[in-house]
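Tokens as discussed.
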């Protein structure tokens, strides 16, 4: 699966996904960046490139009603990295289902649960 996130500021989103979370840039142009983290793929695209009337083109907070889940090999190390660089992050928590995770919100309000990989 690949996600495309429509954002207000592609540069700000790129900084978050590349520099804070550790995604690798795979392809890019001025209004679109393709990124990956292991097998996960996302793209960030300037929301102003959408056609007028597109259901995602309207103003307002983005990402409502969705939680993205990213499985990583070392959730503790990534959490430490994110905490140093980003204000909108929760603490690490061992969940009732047995996995440890943390939550972080990107510059446009997209909500991520970063969790350890299932064994």
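Sequence:
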């Amino acid at each position: 699966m690949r996600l495309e996130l429509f954002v207000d500021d592609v540069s700000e989103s790129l900084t978050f996904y590349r520099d804070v979370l550790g995604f690798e840039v795979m392809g890019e142009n001025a209004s679109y960046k393709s990124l990956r983290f292991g097998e996960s793929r996302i793209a960030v695209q300037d929301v102003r490139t959408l056609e007028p009337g597109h259901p995602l083109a309207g103003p307002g907070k983005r990402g409502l009603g969705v939680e993205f889940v990213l499985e990583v090999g070392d959730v503790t190390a990534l959490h430490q990295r994110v905490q140093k660089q980003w204000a909108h992050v929760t603490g690490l928590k061992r969940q009732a289902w047995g996995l440890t995770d943390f939550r972080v919100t990107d510059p446009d309000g997209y909500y991520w649960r970063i969790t350890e990989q299932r064994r």
